[in-house]
Amino acid sequence: MKYSVLTLALAASLAVGSAVAGGGSPFYLGADVGLTSSDGHYDYDPKKDGGCGADDTCSLGLDHTNRAAHLYGGVQLSDKFAIEAGYVDLGETVYDDSIGLSQDTTGVTLKGVVRQRLGKTSPTLVYGKAGVVRWDSEVNVIDETGKKDVSLAQQTDYSATVGAGLEYEFAGNASFRAGWDRYFAVGEKDIDSFIKVDEKKEAIEFHSISSDVDVFSAGIKYDFL
Predict the structure, then answer these.
(1) What is the pTM of this model?
(2) Of 109, 125, 222, whose CA–CA distance to 164 is shortest?
């Protein structure tokens, strides 16, 4: 399956962490929820590319806010450095109403995390993250009821991701995290047309739109100490 490697890695982290929970396990798990903000757009000529009315000017804007979720597991290599792998759902972006399309994006992440405690005994830390996301972006038709009807295109690729935030330790092994993540150029890159049709207006080819996605989120992290 697409995410079987990640699932096995997270399951192994949980199993090993539970087995040695009383002996200083370096493993941890976490989950965040939040909101996304996308800033991509694509302007196209409906007479050339199809879609919209013949006299309409079409602009597919991704200036849109939607819900996001991130499940991750990590290993603390030292007091200041960790490696994390996770699964992220970047939500849905609805295109121009006259088009009736949406773009849904999920991904698998691998990040390095650097943490710094604010004072020797302070429960608050700052952190920074950088890594890569393997994203999967799908374009769907939205019917008159707002439900997804037909999948028109699906692209998968790799992009860079960075992030930063605060972590507050409480209740023993549990921590509260709040932060920002950016996923660069999520969606198909270097396309010359969003919709392609042949001269007879019969064959149609759709593409996803590349966009930088910002995620503002908060959640809980649990260390198997």
Answers:
(1) 0.76
(2) 125
